[in-house]
Amino acid sequence: MIDVASKADRFLKASVRENTSKSYAAALTQHEVTWSGFLPTTTESVVRYIAEYADQLALCTLKQRLAALAS
């Protein structure tokens, strides 16, 4: 009999590319270590984070970091 949980885990892992996982991990490290943010985060913290980096980072980078925080 096939283990449904392990089959589901394989599908979930396959749904996220390795580079996406790496970039999310880097974004979370940057948020926690460099910016000293906590996870899970609050809406207020996310707004302060975006305000801090809005003039330093490209829009696509900010979107990627928000996606990482949301995941």
Give the tally of β-strands: 0
> Strand pairing plus helix content: what structural class?
mainly alpha
- How many separate helices? 4
Please, what is the average pLDDT? 87
Q: What's the SSE pattern?
A: HHHH
Distance between the termini: 32 Å
Low-confidence stretches: none
Q: Profile the largest sheet.
A: none
Strand content: under 5%
Short description:
With 71 residues, the protein is mostly helical. It has helices at 4-15, 18-34, 43-53, 59-70.
Walk me through the structure:
- It is elongated and about 50 Å long.
- The protein has helices at residues 4-15, 18-34, 43-53, 59-70.
- The protein is mainly alpha-helical and 71 residues long.
Q: What is the fold's blueprint, element by element?
A:
Blueprint: H1 4-15, H2 18-34, H3 43-53, H4 59-70
Helix pairs in contact: 2-4
How would you describe this structure in keywords?
71 residues, mainly alpha, 4 helices, 0% strand, elongated
